[in-house]
Specification:
The complex is a heterodimer.
Chain A (H helix, E strand, L loop, with lengths): L2 E3 L11 H14 L8 H8 L3 H7 L28 H22 L64 H5 L30 H15 L19 H4 L3 H17 L19 H4 L6 E4 L5 E4 L14 E3 L10 H8 L4 H10 L7 E7 L4 E3 L4 E7 L1 H13 L14 E10 L6 E6 L14 E6 L3 H5 L10 E6 L1 H9 L7 E8 L9 E12 L1
Parallel strand pairs in A: 1-4
Antiparallel strand pairs in A: 2-3, 5-7, 5-13, 6-13, 7-12, 8-11, 8-13, 9-10, 9-12
Helix pairs in contact in A: 1-4, 4-8, 6-8, 10-11
Chain B lengths: L8 H4 L3 H20 L12 H11 L4 H18 L4 H9 L6 H37 L3 H14 L1 H10 L9 H32 L4 H17 L18 H8 L1
The chains are: A alpha+beta, B mainly alpha.
């Protein structure tokens, strides 16, 4: 019987899961960073910045480190901006969990202990609160709470961690049937772009972009009144190099891993490809990169693993399952969309069921901003010029939906994306609301229908370094704006020459911060 | 929906059209190098001064010179065409549908222009090396190997290779779109020549194995172009594409 990873918000009264988590943390934190089973080395596997750790008091400057903290190897191993994001983090969490379980059992704890998860469910506002057990500095007996760290500054920097449903959308995940996309296509897939082993990069999949990134930023944040460009002012969760030190990190990633299990259960639509909602069968993903997923064992030895070896969580090596992997908010999105586009309600369901996938996936540029956009502490406006030929084609395709026969095996209507490319930044701890086609002088908060999504800067700093492995290419984020564009089409605004985009900061941004979106592009995609 | 065929990266990212173009150029080069031994393709000019003369001859109107220029272009196309698959696919994604062909054409023309411009310089370097070889009493080929090895290990070179993976920031509309495609081609050409030129000294200083060495080199450089970016540091991984070879080997096995 596999161990059960439980929802931290549904732990029954008297449950000891978090008590034993805390006990294990206490033990692992007494171990030296030179021990690969220590709390510190486990965190450094995700990322480490020697000077930052010294500044924050998590590393003694006199310690001789067992690995080069500047090199990508056993440390600094985390996979972001890549199709290895999910399998690498699963292997990492499993290795972490095995080490904790070993400690817990030796302390007399339960042999079926499993890492809990923080399910920030957008449909349940209470779950968006920061898990209570992690918040107080001291426990009832006056001892230090092992689940607490001081560097959690939250959205505004005052330590209040507030997450809105719109920060952590999950329903778009259930609309995306493909696990990965090729590097020459938009990063619109669930699990990321086909890349080599990649510590940071621009090919993040939807799950990594949101909710993964915003939760990192909104928990970490920046200390009130300080400059987010100086790394030590930011919360631990906001940066690759410190995130693993915060005990909540592991519950966050447990939930990300759970959302992957949920995605695999999403019902396939007739117009979806054969591999919809399935893991890749590509050997590059399953078996590569050979020897580079290196994980520690409780006995201090290491082993290498691959994506193929972590696909079945109930297999003896992993031996866990989630309390709940049901898919919230899975609706008949296509039928509802066809209804909005003018198909009679009685026909919309039939038509949605009859639609087939396009013979070939095609991605076409519809418009683009003319220059880079510097984001600031106040809302920033940008403009995307549209190509009349492309919008004309899009409009015609959307109009043609109305006249389709109910059983027509036509391809599903195009989806439209706003792509934020070459996003470079001097801070990781930033987040912006992105609005499209907002009425002039409108209060953005009153127009959720124009909210395209959020842009989080988690990982942007590393991706912006000109001398780094990614040559300063920055992040790429993809926002599905299909519904907004449908509304523009229906109100006759799609023949406009341009569409306005507004960035509203959700975190403190300093005057000196250099946060640039290299280009804004609008694409339509048929598949 | 594109089919997800499990192919190793070097094969999957290759463009069949560009590979075919490259193959045709190789065949023409092989045929030409036997039938036209008089064409001064890649043969060192005695001095920098005569290299300049060779430059003017190449751009002159004499039939042999025209042929030499044509062969130089053929050689560049044969060696570099497969490497353009990635930048062209990135460029197409960022171009309006009606401009995709034009964008790719401008990019390729600008890229080729850089190689045409550096041709005479590359051809002159072996002569400088001959002078160096006489001064140091070392064979020119040994000096070429030393230069190539040093450059292969250099962080500056890795930084340039990483820049090749950067997606282009291109305008979509009007003259700005044309300008950006040309600039992308020029930048890519300059990066390519800087990355590859020292390795190309090897065939230039070993005339007996000129064509096979060039072919081997272009395969190796193509593998290297497809290898993932790495932090720019001094490295022992100096064989182009050595990181990709095990992947290919495992796939074949």
């Amino acid at each position: 019987m596999a161990r059960v990873r439980k929802d931290v918000w549904q732990l029954p009264a008297g449950d000891k899961t978090l008590f034993w988590y805390g006990e294990a943390i206490r033990e692992l934190q007494t171990r030296s960073i030179t021990d690969i089973t220590s709390w510190w080395s486990l965190a450094a596997m995700h990322g480490i910045d020697r000077q930052l750790w010294i500044d924050l008091g998590y590393l003694d400057a006199s310690v001789t480190l067992p690995f080069d903290p500047d090199a990508l190897g056993f440390w600094n191993q985390c996979q972001h901006g890549s199709w290895y994001f999910l399998p690498w983090h699963r292997a990492y969490l499993a290795a972490f969990e095995a080490i904790l379980l070993d400690v817990i059992v030796k302390k007399g704890g339960p042999a079926d202990w499993a890492l809990p998860y923080w399910n920030y469910d957008p449909t349940k506002p209470d779950t968006l609160k920061f898990p209570t057990a992690f918040a107080p500095e001291l426990l009832d007996d006056g001892s230090k709470n092992p689940l607490w760290v001081k560097e959690r500054y939250g959205r505004r920097g005052n330590g209040v961690i507030s997450i809105r449903a719109s920060d952590i959308p999950v329903s778009p995940l259930w609309q995306e049937p493909e696990f990965f996309n090729e590097p020459q296509d938009l990063p619109t897939s669930f699990g990321g772009t086909r890349t080599a082993f990649s510590h940071g990069g621009s090919g993040a999949g939807l799950l990594e972009q949101r909710p993964h990134g915003p939760v990192h930023v909104l928990v970490g944040g920046t200390k009130e009144g300080t400059d987010p460009d100086i790394a030590k002012n930011n919360g631990l969760m906001a940066m690759f190099e410190t995130a693993g030190i915060d005990p909540i990190f592991w519950l966050h990633h447990s939930n990300i891993d759970r959302l992957w299990e949920s995605w695999l259960t999403v019902r396939r639509h007739p117009s979806d490809p054969a591999d919809a909602y399935k893991n890749p069968t590509d050997t590059d993903w399953l078996n590569e990169p050979a020897g580079q997923f290196v994980m520690p064992r409780p006995d201090g030895t290491t082993f290498t693993t691959t994506a193929a070896k972590v696909l079945n969580t109930k297999a003896p090596e992993l031996n866990y399952e989630y309390q709940d992997i049901s898919v919230p908010g899975q609706q008949q999105v296509l039928a509802a969309r066809l209804g909005r586009l003018g198909v009679a309600p009685t026909d919309a369901n039939n038509l949605a069921g009859a639609m087939t996938m396009a013979a070939q996936k095609s991605t076409e540029l519809v418009g683009e901003s003319s220059a880079a956009i510097r984001l600031a502490a106040t809302p920033t406006d940008a403009r995307v010029q549209l190509d009349s030929a492309a919008t004309g084609k899009l409009s015609a395709k959307l109009s043609s939906i109305r006249s389709l026969a109910p059983a027509s095996a036509a391809p599903a209507p195009d989806r439209v994306y706003l792509v934020l490319e070459n996003v470079t930044s001097t801070t990781d701890a930033g987040m912006f609301d992105v609005y499209v086609n907002l009425p002039k002088d409108a209060n953005p908060a009153q127009h959720p229908e124009n909210h395209a999504g959020v842009l989080s800067l988690f990982g942007a700093r590393a991706a912006s370094q000109a001398g780094g492995p990614h040559a300063g290419a920055g992040l790429t984020q993809t926002l599905d704006i299909t519904d907004i564009v449908d509304a523009m089409h229906l109100s006759g605004q799609l023949n406009a020459q341009a569409v306005d985009v507004k960035f509203v900061p959700q975190t403190p941004i300093s005057a000196g911060s250099k946060i640039d979106v290299g280009r804004l592009r609008v694409y339509r995609q048929s598949r | 929906m594109s089919p997800h065929v499990p192919l190793p990266t070097p094969l999957r990212q290759a463009s069949p059209v560009l590979l075919f173009a490259s193959l045709c150029c190789w065949l023409l080069l092989a045929a030409g190098s036997e039938g036209l031994p008089s064409v001064a393709l890649c043969s060192p000019s005695p001095t920098l001064v005569t290299a300049g003369a060779a430059f003017s001859t190449i751009y002159g109107l004499s039939a042999t010179a025209m042929l030499a220029a044509l062969f130089w272009i053929l050689m560049v196309a044969a060696m570099t065409a497969p490497q353009l698959a990635q930048p062209i696919s990135q460029l197409r994604l960022r171009s309006l549908v009606q401009r995709r062909g034009r964008s790719a054409g401008l990019f390729a023309a600008a890229y080729l222009l850089v190689w045409i411009a550096v041709g005479p310089i590359l051809l002159a370097v072996p002569n400088a090396m001959t002078v160096l070889a006489q001064a140091t009493a070392l064979p020119a080929f040994v000096i070429a190997v030393a230069i190539a090895v040093l450059w292969q290990a250099a962080p500056l070179r890795q930084g340039m290779l990483n820049r090749c993976h950067r997606v282009p920031n291109l305008s979509a509309f009007g003259a700005a779109a044309d300008r950006d495609c040309i600039r992308f081609g020029l930048t890519h050409g300059l990066l390519c020549t800087a990355i590859c030129a020292p390795a190309m000294l090897l065939p230039l200083t070993a005339p007996a194995f000129h064509l096979p060495l060039m072919f081997a080199l272009s395969v190796a450089l193509q593998l290297e172009r497809l290898a993932p970016p790495r932090p720019p540091r001094w490295t022992w991984r100096i064989l182009p594409g050595q990181a990709v070879v095990p992947v290919l080997f495992r796939w074949i096995r």
